[in-house]
Amino acid sequence: MFSSGKVVQLFYDVSSPYSWLAFEVLCRYRNVWNIDLKFKPAFLPGVIYGSGNQPAGMNPSKLTYIVSDLTLLSEYFGVPMFRPSDLSDKDTLSAMRFVTALAEKEKEGDMLVERVSRELWKRKWRTHQDITQPASLTEAGLKAGLSANVVKEILSLSKSQPIKDKLKSVTQEALEYKVSAFNLHLCTLCLAHQKIFVVEKYNKMSLHIFPPFLQCFGFPFIVCQVNGKAKVFFGSDRFELMAYFMGNYNGLGIY
């Protein structure tokens, strides 16, 4: 039972390689930061559509950058991944329903969800294996340590309406999660400039530059709660800010 008052929720889809990086780093920091890490499997296309965003693959320049960026990031974080031959094949609906069904069954923790999610990411981004067919999900589940009977049960459960609705609701939860944009930008400046700024001047400026609330527009989407106060982060490169918000900045370490 955690008593630090620090809860971190990771909204993710295994179609997102940046979510995999965030997932692995948060797992590494879980005990160092003394956080209650909660996995929130969701459906990225639902967030893209619901937020009015566009898939990164639709922008050739952005796609070229992402390929180069992921090569360096995978080396830096020690998470080997390789570009799939077909980046347009992003159908992870069955996979995310499978993980959602497992999460619903595993009420007393996320250990199996963690293992299965990691195996699905490996298949998608390291070995370039299918994650859409029942046989593929079975292989991933067995490799993650599930018994054949449990895998069969989870596969059946993943096709049920309650699980389909659960995945939709978690995806919608990410879209509806809003916090003050001013507080986030204010603390960003606080960290970047070592707390040297004029709050009154920035307060007036932020009203004209930034929208009043931040909304999820992609994954990884990370919600940090410290004693009931929430901050949100997008991407796999915000760990210094997260550490600062949670009071762990001096013990951040290097991934």
Describe the structure.
With about 260 residues, the chain is an alpha+beta fold. It contains 11 helices and 6 strands. It has helices spanning about 15-30, 45-50, 60-75, 95-105, 110-125, 135-145, 150-160, 160-175, 180-190, 200-210, 240-245; strands at about 5-10, 35-40, 180, 215, 220-225, 230-235. The longest helix is centred in the N-terminal third of the chain and has 18 residues, at about 60-75.
Rounded Rg: 19 Å
**Share in helix:** 40-55%
**End-to-end span in angstroms?**
25 Å
User: pLDDT below 50 for ≥5 consecutive residues: which ranges?
Assistant: 180-212
Secondary structure tally: strands: 6
Strand content: 5-15%
| Secondary-structure-derived class | alpha+beta
Q: Would you list the SSEs in sequence order as H and E?
A: EHEHHHHHHHEHHEEEH
Shape call:
globular
Query: How are the strands of the largest sheet arranged?
Result: 2-1-5-6
Residue-averaged pLDDT: 81
Discrete helix count: 11
Main sheet makeup = 4 strands, mixed
